[in-house]
Each structure stands twice: as structure tokens, then as C-alpha cells.
Amino acid sequence: MDQIDLDLLATLEADARLSFAELAERHGLSKTPVWKRVKAMEEAGAIRGYAAQLDAAALGFGIEAFVQVTLQSDAAERFEAVVMAHPAVRRCHATTGAGDYLLHVLCRDIAMMDRLLRREIARMPGVVRTETIVSTRTVKDRHSLASAAKALGKG
């Protein structure tokens, strides 16, 4: 992956709806080489897909929280299967440190958060302990991975 690829990725991160012609024009290239580069990055897995970015608040989710979960030692696979299917869990990360997993959850209100924590997450397979941190506001939501790769000398 070279500097041109990283520049193309940064542009696609900002607006994935651009046509190959528009993408080529922005970077002073012709359409065919841009198309080939983008296809190669898709095949290599650098581009995992294209999606609309939705606003959680506009969709009625007023509470965003992070739940650290500690499990019994033999419950990871069962826990992960339940988490994968749960609609309120936006992201799940296996972690090091005091907890085993960090869940990023969205809820409509505090009542929904209470139900989620007490009736659902606490009852997931192997859960021993949870600790919840509620986000009061988002300071930074996204950062360009292509820009980070450029800054770290990938390109």
C-alpha cells in the first residue's frame, strides 16, 4: 500500500459515495487505475465494506454506555454467541485487565439501560460482574484510519 492508496482510502472514509470518476478527478488520476487500486484494497481486506453512518440520537437512542464484563473462566464462547445476537450491543471487545470484555451499548432511556444491565447482560452466560460507564457526550467519534496509517509511516 503506497501513499496514493492511503490518500484514496482517506477520501473514501470521508465520502464512500463518490464515483470512481470523482475519486480519480480529486486525486489527479484516471478512472481505471483508481478502480484497480480500490478493487485491490477490497480484495486485500483494507476496505471491509461501505455503509451509511447513522446518528444514534436521531434514531431515539439517548444513552450510550460502556459495560466492562468479567466472566467465569469457561464461559467465553457461550457469552460471545449471546452478545453477537444482542441488538443493544453495538460493539464487543475482548480485553486485558480487570475485565474480560468491553461492550458498547445503546439504549433509548435509563429504564431501558436498567433492564439491559439487570435482566439481560447480568444473565448472560458466565457473567460474574459488570461495571458500567455512561457517556455524557462524545468528544471524538471518528478518526481516519488512512490518516493514522500515513502518520505512522505505513504509506
UniProtKB/TrEMBL annotation:
Keywords: DNA-binding, Transcription, Transcription regulation. The keyword DNA-binding applies. InterPro entries: ArsR-like_HTH, AsnC-type_HTH_dom, Dimeric_a/b-barrel, Tscrpt_reg_AsnC-like, Tscrpt_reg_AsnC/Lrp_C, WH-like_DNA-bd_sf, WH_DNA-bd_sf. It holds the Pfam family HTH_24. Residues 1-62 form the HTH asnC-type domain. PROSITE patterns: HTH_ASNC_2. CDD domains: HTH_ARSR (cd00090). SMART domains: HTH_ASNC. This is Lrp/AsnC family transcriptional regulator. It comes from Paracoccus angustae.
